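Take one protein record:
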Amino acid sequence: MMGSRVTPRPPHARRRKGPSQWLKRPEGPFSLRACLSPGTLLVAGLMAACLFSGLSVVVITHETRAQYARLQTLEQEKNQLNTEWGRLLLEDGTWSTPARIEKIATERLDMRIPDVHDVEVIAP
């Protein structure tokens, strides 16, 4: 039997494996069964959690800075409004003094303070 000699195949000429063969026989560190081992899944899950946590920190830091800038703007606006309120209170006090009201009443409306003889007291 001379023609029945089997020659080994070179490594690059091996048959392709289907997904069912990956699950049946683990052959090395890159088989599907090795990739789905609990340790590998745990490491992958922890890496995903770290990535998610890092991105969350970045987003929250950005939001914090944006909200702090908004807070500074609102505090500045509050200070300006308080200053204007104080100025308006002073102006109101100036415009409503009794001497000024009496002066306007006598000049523009020809009003006067009644004499003692012109006042009548009505008994209750």
About this structure: The chain is about 65% helix and 0% strand.
